[in-house]
Automatic annotation (TrEMBL):
PANTHER family: BETA-LACTAMASE, BETA-LACTAMASE-TYPE TRANSPEPTIDASE FOLD CONTAINING PROTEIN. It comes from Lysinibacillus fusiformis. GO terms for biological process: beta-lactam antibiotic catabolic process; response to antibiotic. GO terms for molecular function: beta-lactamase activity; carboxypeptidase activity. SUPFAM superfamilies: beta-lactamase/transpeptidase-like. This is D-alanyl-D-alanine carboxypeptidase. Pfam families: Beta-lactamase2 (PF13354). The keyword Secreted does not apply. Keywords: Carboxypeptidase, Hydrolase, Membrane, Protease, Transmembrane, Transmembrane helix. The keyword Protease applies. The chain crosses the membrane at residues 6-24. InterPro entries: Beta-lactam/transpept-like, Beta-lactam_cat, Beta-lactam_class-A. Residues 60-174 form the Beta-lactamase class A catalytic domain.
Length: 373
């Protein structure tokens, strides 16, 4: 069968055993990789505008649900940064082999705010004392490991105007402009100190702040870090303030777009006829790292994906073409998730993609059932 290798005293003793068994069953349930969970979740939330799904196969829609609802993208937005990187590399405006000092990336790293992504990327590099990496590796780490620090560094190198120009080129209708999302994590500290507020007052001030001011503050913080990076103590201070209430505000204010937008983008990446061959020369190695696995090469011509998550959000944008020429694009965005939903969706997404790509009966059932809703 095909596989898709994607890169998360006696009574007391008896009571302990029962608790242990219940906990084991709970752990087993939430970690279960079940494509049917995704199907049921979509059905149950079909009237919920916090869930949006668009699935396309061979230029025909198979599933459409709330496709024009703007929802937070989380790290899925990094696809836009990857495209801007490839364009500038193709035009000779940046050099993918330029060596980047890891200390420059550290400027945009706030510990314990990215699920360990940046540290995981550094660990797999096996640097052994090396303190520089090529710019191309920074871009690869942004997609494969979802390093937020790499992303914000690339935003600095590429320029926000050039990155947002990509949205115009792609003709997307409902995509919000990109802004520095790591720098936004420092807004609570800035507001608290600037206005001498309590934690509760700071939370209220952020809730009332409009997006124009929020983006402007994030951009200003980003620029200030270039000149004067935060100290370790200042980063720890920012991290300490980010309880779940502040995280929810940050999550809700992440760049938003629609699955309709991303199906359009994914189709362009899949067809490979929108961008030039020179752009794809730099874009595909970043976006299609799945194809480094020989098992995927056996049955796929190409495939790429970028997911994203916060404590409240799960998103996925994926595309693939199999050896028979069938093209598939999947965009699924979900917001305001509880912990159980977030974990189960995340654990089941891989098998859902695989089943849709390889199981014709499953595809036909989905099309039939969702057309009847």
């Amino acid at each position: 069968m095909k596989k898709l290798y994607w890169m998360m005293g006696g009574i007391l003793i008896c009571a302990g055993l029962v608790i242990g068994i219940v906990f084991w069953k709970f752990q087993k349930e939430i970690k279960k990789d079940d494509p049917e969970y995704i199907v049921q979740f979509i059905k149950e939330h079909r009237a919920d505008k916090n869930v949006s799904v668009a699935i396309q196969r061979n230029q025909q829609y198979w599933v459409e649900l709330n496709t024009k609802e703007q929802l937070p993208l989380a790290s899925t937005v990094k696809i836009i940064v990857a495209i801007a990187y490839a364009q500038q590399a193709a035009e000779g405006r940046i050099n993918p082999q330029q060596q980047v000092d890891l200390k420059e990336l550290e400027v945009f790293y706030i510990p314990k705010t990215d699920g360990g992504a940046h540290e995981a990327w550094l660990a797999q590099l096996n640097l052994q004392g090396v303190d520089h990496v090529p710019l191309s590796e920074v871009a690869s780490g942004m997609i494969a490991y979802s390093s937020n620090a790499n992303t914000e560094y690339l935003m600095h190198v590429l320029g926000f105007q050039a990155i947002n120009d990509v949205l115009t080129q792609l003709h997307v209708e409902d995509h919000e402009p990109l802004y520095p999302i790591v720098s936004a994590l420092h807004i609570p500290v800035q507001v608290l100190k600037e206005k001498n507020l309590t934690k509760k007052e700071t939370l209220a001030a952020l809730q009332e702040m409009d997006m124009a001011e929020y983006r402007e503050r994030a951009s200003s913080i980003h620029a200030s870090w270039i000149e004067q990076p935060l100290t370790y103590e200042e980063k720890a201070e920012a991290q300490k303030l980010l309880n779940m209430d502040f995280q929810k505000i940050w999550s809700d204010r992440l760049i938003r777009a629609t699955t309709n937008d991303y199906i359009s983008i994914l189709e362009k990446l899949n067809n490979k006829n929108f961008f030039s061959a020179e752009v794809h020369k730099y874009l595909d190695p970043v976006m299609e790292q799945l194809m480094q696995n020989p098992k995927n090469q056996e049955w796929l011509t190409h495939a790429g994906q970028k997911g994203g998550s916060t404590a409240f959000v799960l998103t996925l944008a994926a595309y693939a073409e199999d050896k028979e020429g069938n093209q598939t694009e999947i965009a699924l965005f979900a917001n305001d998730l509880n912990t159980m939903e977030q974990i189960k969706l995340s654990n089941s997404m891989n098998s859902f993609q695989l089943k849709f790509l390889t199981d014709d009966k499953f595809r036909k059932r989905l099309k039939r059932e969702f057309s009847e809703l």
